[in-house]
Write a structure and sequence with these properties.
Length: 444
Amino acid sequence: MLKAIQRIARAGLAGVLLLCAGATGSAQDSEKTVVLRAAHLFDATSERLRSDAVVVVRAGRIVAVGGDAAIPEGAEVIDLGDATLLPGFIDVHSHLTLEPDENYYRKTLNELMRNPTEMAFYAAANARRTLEAGFTAVRHVGGREFIDVGLRNAIAADLTPGPRILAAGNAITATGGSCDRPPFPAQRVAPLTPREGVCTGADQCREAVRDQIKWGADAIKVCASGGVLSYDPVDVPQLTREELEAVIGEAHKWGRKVAAHSHGDAASRLAVEAGIDSIEHGSFLSEDTLKLMRAKGVYLVPTFMALDWVESHADGYPPNIAEKAHVAAAAHADMFRAALRIGVPIALGTDATVRPDGHGRNAMEFALMVEAGMRPGAALLAGTSNAARLIGLEAEMGTLTPGKWADIVAVPGNPLTDIRATERPLFVMQRGRVVRRDGISLLR
Ligand SMILES: [Zn+2]
């Protein structure tokens, strides 16, 4: 009982709401057993493809997997033919509340001009597209006005379709840091406060973490180094060791994992030593830092989709950003190969919002990781079981095994020989509910 209470406390409001939504939302399906069949099955417990591709689903959960699964009489059988069944995909680096735009200047103006209510409608549309693409869960690593918390609750209450969201609220950042606002004149745009994630000194950064948790964060995002799409040098450390230790220590005390935006090696090293759970982007990580990450089980979240776009469309950005994009992208490819060689745990994260067509095309990240040297099976694990483990939801999702939520995707043919099949899902099921079939979305 105590364990259950601790789990709910850790899961926060989202956990409570999900328990409620689970009780009502899946009631319509509770009596019905659905059997999924296909040519292949990738259960994400290994890189192997199985041929006994049968998954039995009841009451929103997987009850049996494999050729010898008992099929109850009266079960609905869905035969997906020459396809592969996989666990629902998970994107651990998402910003659904940010609206992509190929024009950097228009995007900046829109973000300033839209009020939170209007932004929430865009976020809901992005969430729907993400779910239709087979992403049944995302970790939302930073956005303004707690729109991610509101969207998470609305999805959990079945008001609007979308992936299960783990929300981080505002990212924690230094003044002028990569997650602060651009340096708009203070007379025109009010500087951000600790409640909005901008902090100085250990006490204020601890307060900033508590503020995010108070208003509903399930995870914490911290910006350890400079960024590409910001006005600071990309590789410098921004928060001090004391500030990072305060952020990470406080978050962990509350049962929240911490993701660090970090391109630079010195900043990443500080974050890893301070107990960070994942390094996001990681462009300039040295072999020494990668080895330390492997030793401490710290995940790398490479976000190829974002870097790939900014680098290939650098002309559309202010000159300082374009220059940083070229330097970071060049270092990032080498860093990723070193991470693979060293054996750093890797989880799939897209930063999809950086691309104008990004939300709903998250599965591109699988192919980008494979093109950079990752085995297709390892890339699939990064977007399923590894991602679930990083965000602490491995008991509920990430593998096709009995007891897990019935978050299931089917892609055509064999994704180990054609990784881009992940970008053409035929079928998507979220907690037992079919949201896409025959390649067509059933969401209205
Ligand atoms: Zn990001």
